[in-house]
Amino acid sequence: MSGRKQFDVSAALDQAMRVFWQRGYADASLDALGAATGLGRGSLYGAFGNKDALFGQCLDRYASIYGAQYEQALAAHPGDPVRAVEAFFDVILGRIADPSVPVGCLIAQSAAQSLTLKEESGVHVRGLLDTQRQRVRAALADSSAAPRTLDELATFVIAVNQSLAVLSRAGTSDAELRSVTRLACTTVADTLARAASENVAQA
């Protein structure tokens, strides 16, 4: 039997994810990652590859956890895109308010620090942001707005999502964050209503 110490790979990945989430890529040292996971550098490299490879796996882990919640929220109100966006923001606000996880958003923080990332990691982060945008775009499709308008609204919603992460790290209160999401949802509703009115006028 091998004398190598066994460890829970999933648990170690979750701990590493928290380090990147709390500190950002640049400040997540191998010492900090090792301390959080309980693994030496050799074990870290053996299990996950180098720091960039580990970071990529943590991004995917984060995206799988919250992506599933986003999809469920956005799909919960078929035919009502505004309510779908409200549900999407509810998931985000719930994560921000959860004391068991770091403040902010790993993807938003990584995007903000894109200049410190290797090219492959930067592409990875942008891809995850685009996946979020596509989810929102699909939920907005249950409307009569033109495709360009839906594209712009989806980008707007994701921009608000990213700003919520930044604001929460700066200590913005829950009440203020909810005010931001209410205004965002009003913007979505007004834009879709205006598009519907224009379609009727052109009919």
Automatic annotation (TrEMBL):
DNA-binding region boundaries: 29-48
Pfam families to which the protein is assigned, alphabetical: TetR_N (PF00440)
Residue ranges of domain HTH tetR-type in the record: 6-66
InterPro entries: DNA-bd_HTH_TetR-type_CS (IPR023772), Homeodomain-like_sf (IPR009057), HTH_TetR (IPR001647), Tet_transcr_reg_TetR-rel_C_sf (IPR036271)
This protein's UniProt keywords: DNA-binding, Transcription, Transcription regulation
SUPFAM superfamilies per record: Homeodomain-like, Tetracyclin repressor-like, C-terminal domain
Record-level Gene Ontology MF annotations: DNA binding
Presence of keyword Transcription: yes
Keyword Cytoplasm included in the entry's annotation: no
PROSITE patterns given in the database record: HTH_TETR_1, HTH_TETR_2
Name of the featured protein: TetR family transcriptional regulator
Annotated organism of origin: Streptomyces avermitilis
